[in-house]
Amino acid sequence: MYFLLMQVTRLDPYMKKVILDNGWELTFDKCLLATGGRPRNLQCVEEASQEVKDRVTLFRNVADFQRLHDVVKNVKSVAIIGGGFLGSELACALGHKGLESGMKVIQIFPESGNMGEVLPEYLSQWTMEKVKSEGVDVRSNLYLRTVEYDESSGQIQLKVNTGEKISVDHLVVTVGLEPNVELAELSGLETDDKYGGYRVNAELQARSNIWVAGDSACFYDIKLGRRRVEHHDHAVVSGRLAGENMAGNNKPYWHQSMFWSDLGPDVGYEAIGVVDSHLPTVGVYAKKTSADSPKAVVEATGEEMRSETETEQVANTIQETVPSSGQNEGDDFGKGVIFYVREKVIVGVVLWNVFGKIPIARKLIKDGLEHGDFGEVAKLFDIHDRDKDDS
To answer: Is residue 142 within 8 Å of residue 165, measured between CB atoms?
Structure first.
């Protein structure tokens, strides 16, 4: 049964009831909350005039994409706030378009480099140069203070922390997601102060007979501790697990979901586990070939949504390989593996222009072993085996 255009105002966990905004009450035996989230905005944008808001896109869903697609046909300049996955992907895409159309693309973020909260500093800086090469004017170490509409030019004026004023035709905000947890207070559900979202156990259960899945679930990972994840693979797997547990399986969430991102046709990565630039990292790199790029993967497999094929794969055994040739060449981080470590135990892995190896990374995290020589661990990913262009 569907109840369209109706809103849930609260749950009564004890009486097992859902109360709708029209006063109706629905009873349940088991209830799943999959409330997702909404794009996080900036306070200075929320407080700006309507003229400013008419020229701002909070970029998150298909409708946002469609609107922005129409907007960029008619503007000469766009600013993107945010240096994470979404902001950097979007900057590269618009920068590439700008090289053809003459549109100026500016990316602004407070970190020192692109994806600075995820990648180690040196790789974040290297990535920033790659983003610039896509036609993006990257402004790091900046944050937005005020946004105003300039009547004389018809543009919006961005004032940043240095005092500089940047005028653009349109502004895109990509600063993360706010989980939808409005039901929590009136329904007696706990939220997490650190990560946000509904606080659930390892079985994704918030209260007796109430489960949570997707972006709004702050769950206990039996390997890595408490987490909240906002990626496609997690939404698929957590939804399936919550459904199984509602049917009586009582299985813990052990699956390490993966996520991926492409920054233009030549730089792409797949990642799993806790990838946090504040953790110690060890990177092992190799010479990149033309086969080591997102474009090559799509051409070879026809698969653009890489998480679709990685969701359920786990390596049952890991076979070591010996590198055939090559080590790091200067500071060219064209291809490699970055390990994120807590007390010699791998808790996260980024595969940098290395594709199809997530099951190996997943097993490393699941095994939870201490490692002393990460060069030896990197051999498992066979990053030196492609010399196809050198023949």
So the answer is: no
The residue assigned the tokens 């097993």 is 363
Closest by CA position to 279, among listed 347, 191, 336: 347
What is the pTM (predicted TM-score) of this model? Answer: 0.87
Q: Report the b/e string of 348-373 with b at 16+ CB within 10 A.
A: bbbbbbbbbbbbbbbbbbbeeeeeee
CA torsion, points 163, 164, 165, 169, in degrees to nearest 10?
-130
Please calculate the CA angle 107-115-147 and round it to the nearest 5 degrees.
35
Average pLDDT over residues 220-233: 93
Give the integer Cα–Cα distance in Å for 33 and 294. 35
At 304 the pLDDT is 60
Compute and round to an integer the Cα radius of gyration of the chain. Answer: 23
> Nearest 5 degrees, angle CA 225-CA 208-CA 18?
115
Check: CB of residue 115 under 8 Å from CB of residue 121.
Answer: no
Q: Which pLDDT belongs to residue 326?
A: 33
| 327-366 pLDDT, tens digit each | 333 457 889 999 999 999 999 999 999 999 999 999 999 9
pLDDT 10s digits, 79-108? 999 999 999 999 999 999 999 999 999 999
8-state DSSP, 368: T
As a whole number of angstroms, the distance between CA 361 and CA 383 comes to: 13
Sign of CA dihedral 210, 211, 214, 217: positive
Tokens 């950097």, residue?
88
